[in-house]
Amino acid sequence: MPSITFEGQRYVLREQESVLEGLLRHDVSVLSSCRSGVCQSCIMRAVDQSPPAESQKGLKESLRSRGHFLACLCRPESDMEITLPGNADLPWVSAKVIGKERLSERVMQLTLRCPDTFSFQAGQFINIIHDDKVRSYSVANVPNGMRTLELHVYRVDNGRISNWIHNDLAVGDAMSIQGPFGDCVYNPAAPDQPLLLIGTGCGLAALRGVIHNALQQGHTAPIHLFHGSRALDGVYLTNEMRALTERYPHFNYTVCLSSNAPPSGFTPGRAADVALAQYPQLKGWRVYLCGNTDMVKTAKRKAFLAGAALKDIHSDPFEFSHAMSPAPPSAASLSD
Ligand SMILES: Cc1cc2nc3c(=O)[nH]c(=O)nc-3n(C[C@H](O)[C@H](O)[C@H](O)COP(=O)(O)OP(=O)(O)OC[C@H]3O[C@@H](n4cnc5c(N)ncnc54)[C@H](O)[C@@H]3O)c2cc1C
Q1: For the chain, counts of helices (H) and of strands (E)
Q2: Which residue has its alpha carbon closest to ligand 1 atom 41?
Q3: Protein residue with its CA nearest to atom 15 in ligand 1
Q4: Residue with CA closest to ligand 1 atom 27
Q5: Has this prediction a pTM greater than 0.85?
Q6: First to last CA, the chain
């Protein structure tokens, strides 16, 4: 079995065990969150050889070329020496909470002021860290020169970080953020490409960013948003989206409720089922899928079978598998 050497200690991996699983099994503290290759919080660096290609999936070229890899995806075939990335490689920076606004019974908008150096595109996501735990949240706004980030946070029952954000985090508090990550972003090079956006719950956050960016940049082809939730408490921004349909005739908005007997104005059923039944031919379209992991994976397959090119399908599955992680750098020790 291959072994990994980390901070001078050698750990033998079990068959098919990832580097992350092996380290956690030996009680080694490393950051992790989704453990599915999405959130990138378990990034590490190979010291003396190239990591397996599949463990570099989704990483920026600048990180790949310097041997960085995702520990949750890394199943080495030979021995490896590994180290943590430096703060210069993937910095945690300090952001300040400048606003909290309830968008629905379950959804809170959190507005952060980030450092000048922090640049992002609408629809990407960031990681936040609190009480040794990392979580990912999508950026719902278009960069506006004000250094603000808007996040939509759904309060998960018994969720440690979402409840902390809803109940305890206060305007004026500092927090540590990392990123941005992900490619759920608008492509300004194709203004005449129809867009299909499907999101459940706070999957709307990234989609809102993409939509505002597309409309601001003069997208000419139709834009179809399908937002779904099981219950009414996951539906939000209906007024804003309906106002956009009035202002932009090529923007279409369908809000779906999969619970029994939705009130008028809501389409019964699951957002992805409704959307893909309405638009069964997606050749030449660009598709965005965000939210519930099962929905995203199923809809990705169906969109591909309906003709969308894989390169034109952007997805952010809200993967979760949260393990205990070591203490983060304190916000006070980070640059503002
Ligand atoms: C790329 C990415 C982008 C994301 N963007 C957003 C966003 O914009 N807004 C947002 O609100 N969330 C988003 N998430 C999900 C978010 O990162 C957290 O998983 C979520 O807030 C729950 O964290 P928690 O600490 O409150 O719950 P935990 O304490 O981790 O979990 C509490 C319980 O809820 C279950 N659970 C945890 N997460 C989920 C989930 N997503 N769905 C269903 N059950 C869950 C757990 O199994 C556990 O039983 C995103 C995730 C990813 C990977």
Answers
A1: 7, 17
A2: 318
A3: 318
A4: 159
A5: yes
A6: 45
CB atoms within 10 A of CB 113: 17
How far is residue 234's CA from residue 310's CA, in Å, rounded to a whole number? 29
H-run or E-run covering 196: strand 195-200
Ligand 1, CB within 6 Å, residue ranges: 34, 38-39, 125, 135-138, 152-154, 156, 158-162, 202, 205, 316, 318-320, 322
Reading the block at residue 41, the tokens are 């919080």
CA 309, CA 253: separation in Å to the nearest integer?
A: 23
> Over the stretch 88-125, which tens digit does the pLDDT of each residue have?
778 899 999 999 999 999 999 999 999 988 999 999 99
* Protein residue with its CA nearest to atom 44 in ligand 1: 156
Pairing relation of β-strands 223-229 and 195-200? parallel
Residue 320 Cα to ligand 1 midpoint, Å, equals 6
State pLDDT tens for residues 268-294: 999 999 999 999 999 999 999 999 999
What is the gyration radius of the CA atoms in the chain, in angstroms?
20
- Three-state DSSP at 124 gives coil
